[in-house]
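REQUEST FORM: STRUCTURE PREDICTION
Request ID: SP-0412
Submitted by: Lab K.M.
Chain count: 1
Length (residues): 303
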Amino acid sequence: MATTAGAQIGLKKIEAAINELAEQVDATKFNETVQNWLAFNASFYHYSFMNTLNIWLQMPTATLVGGAGNCWKPKGRRPIKGAKIVWVLAPIIVGKDKNDPGNKGKLVGFCSRPAYDVSQTEGAPLPDAPCWWTDEKLPELFQALEKVAFDMGVTVEEDALFMEKNSGARGVSMGGSVVLDTAAGTKTLVHELAHEIQRKEGLSSDCAQRETEAEAVAYVVTTHFGGTVESSANYIALKGADSAILRKRLSVIAKMAQHLIEAVQAELPKIVTEDNSDYYEVTNTFADRAIGYTDEDEDDEDL
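STATUS: Completed
RESULT:
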C-alpha cells in the first residue's frame, strides 16, 4: 500500500472522493439493472417488525417473501412443488370501499396466510441483482483496521457461516463488536467500523442515512489505500440515496473517513509480522479520542 506513515490526509482530498462517488451514484440510479431490481423489490409487501421476525424464525435465509397468488403469480412465478409454507400474519379489514379512496375500512383482526420466499419459487427469470459488495482482500489494511478496532474497544470476529445465516449480508456492527463472514472483503470491515463511530458519536438516526454514510466512508478509506471499489455506488443507490444526500452529509462522512485513515496510517508501520502480540498491551486511547462532530456539520452551507 502506497502511503506515508503518519501523514495526514486533507479533508479537501476526501471531499473530492465523496463528490466522485456522488456522481457515480446518480449515474447508477439510471442503470437498467438497478432500476429493474428496485422496481422488483418495490412490488413486495413491506412487512411489520413482528412479521419480519416471524418470517426469520421460520426461514432465516428468506430475502423476498410473498403470497403465491397476489405476489408471485403476476411475476410469472409459482411455488416449487413441496416447498414449505412461510406463514405470515395478514390484516382482516371489513367495510372497505374500492370506489372511495378515503374509506380504508376497519381493522378487525389478523389471520395467518401462506407465503413463499423467492428461493422457493420457479418460473419467469428474476431480474439480475446489482453487485453491492466486494470480496477484495487487502491483508495489511485489514490488520491495521483490526488494531484500530481494538483501540476503539471493538472486537472483530469472523464467521464462515455468517452469510448463510444472514441472507447474504457480509457483516454486522453490534456496538462494541463486529462480525464478518470469512469471505467478506476488507471494505466490509471499514463499513462496520464506520457504524461503530456513528454509534459512539450519536450520528444518523435514520437507517438509510446510516448505511449511506458508512458505505461512503468505506469507499473513501478503501480506495485511499489502493482498493478497487466498484460496488459502493450500487449499494448506496439501492438504499435510495442520491448525490444530494451524500453532499448534504459530506462533512460528517469526510471527518469519519479522515479519522479512520489517519488511525490506519499510524498502525501500518507496526505491522511487521502477523504475530505482533506486544501491540495489544498498549493503552486504549483511541476510544477516548473525540472526533469533534457538531450539528453544523450536517448542514454546511459551503457543501
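NOTES: The radius of gyration is 22 Å.
Reviewed by: T.R.
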